[in-house]
Automatic annotation (TrEMBL):
<keyword id="KW-1133">Transmembrane helix</keyword>
<feature type="transmembrane region" description="Helical">
    <location>
        <begin position="27"/>
        <end position="52"/>
    </location>
</feature>
<dbReference type="GO" id="GO:0005886">
    <property type="term" value="C:plasma membrane"/>
</dbReference>
<dbReference type="InterPro" id="IPR018499">
    <property type="entry name" value="Tetraspanin/Peripherin"/>
</dbReference>
<protein>
    <submittedName>
        <fullName>Leukocyte antigen CD37 isoform X2</fullName>
    </submittedName>
</protein>
<dbReference type="InterPro" id="IPR008952">
    <property type="entry name" value="Tetraspanin_EC2_sf"/>
</dbReference>
<keyword id="KW-0812">Transmembrane</keyword>
<keyword id="KW-0472">Membrane</keyword>
<dbReference type="Pfam" id="PF00335">
    <property type="entry name" value="Tetraspanin"/>
</dbReference>
<feature type="transmembrane region" description="Helical">
    <location>
        <begin position="169"/>
        <end position="194"/>
    </location>
</feature>
Length: 259
């Protein structure tokens, strides 16, 4: 759920940036710049937090794993499933080794002095029981209470995780730095676009950016029948009410009266 939420936020931020660049909307570009700043600062904060509190985080993680081991098998929950997945995928058993499972409440009820019974995920090959998540290599532990397992993982998951981090430390750091570098590059490009769109908008306001548009109002197809009289009066034969100071009201029918 958390990964889906983070992915959704990243997609939303990317859509905002693309929409702002495509529509030349400076407000959307400002929102995109703000989101990039928050993401970069958040990544740096989390990285520094992990580095400065590494020992505290390790102790908290160990406490959580110990609690899961103690309560494992009492009820079917996500913690048991997660522990099984970690042990099976990491090919490890317990926090520091198989003996950690002697802390389990169910194993203690069996009065075992050695880890003869372990979760089935601690074995390379196993045939689990339908009603139990426990397996054993010993023949005296039979179904339906126990499944059959072979080849126990001897390495603890904590050591396995430390080895994996050491082997892939450069890759993890490189990916983190590359992501931050890409985001910084996006920030620079967005700032450039923001300034460019601002200059373009200013040029439009100053009428320095010429945009040619057809003028359809220059000629509407009407003719002007106005003319000047010899005495300087203006006469419009289409409008008999327009007369000059030395000219009486003109009407086309007046021509018949003159003849």
């Amino acid at each position: 759920m958390g990964l889906l939420l983070i992915g959704g936020v990243v997609v939303l931020v990317s859509v905002i940036g693309c929409a702002g660049a495509n529509s030349q909307n400076r407000l959307l570009l400002l929102v995109y710049i703000g989101c990039l700043i928050v993401l970069v600062l958040g990544q740096l904060y989390v990285t520094l937090l992990l580095l400065l509190n590494r020992d505290k985080i390790d102790n908290m993680l160990n406490e959580v794993v110990d609690q899961v081991i103690v309560q494992y098998g009492n009820s079917s929950n996500r913690a048991d499933t997660l522990m099984d997945n970690v042990q099976h995928s990491g090919k490890c058993c317990g926090e520091t080794g198989p003996s950690d499972w002697l802390k389990n409440s169910y194993i203690q009820s069996l009065n075992l002095s050695s880890p003869d019974v372990l979760p089935c995920s601690c074995f390379t090959v196993y045939h689990g029981s339908f009603n139990s998540s426990w397996c054993s290599e010993l023949l005296n532990y039979t179904e339906p209470l126990f499944g059959r397992g072979n080849n126990t993982f001897s390495q603890g998951c904590s050591e396995k995780l430390s080895d994996w981090l050491q082997e892939n430390a450069l890759t993890i750091v490189g990916m983190a730095l590359s992501l931050i570098l890409i985001q910084v590059l996006q920030f620079v490009i967005t700032v450039y676009l923001y300034r460019a769109f601002g200059k373009k908008s200013a040029l439009k306001r100053r009428n320095l950016l010429v945009e040619h548009t057809p003028n359809d109002d220059l000629d509407d197809g009407e003719e002007n029948y106005a003319y000047m009289e010899p005495d300087g009066d203006y006469v419009d034969i289409n409008n008999a009410n327009l007369v000059g100071p030395n000219h009486s009201a003109y009407h086309p029918d007046d021509q018949n009266l003159r003849y």
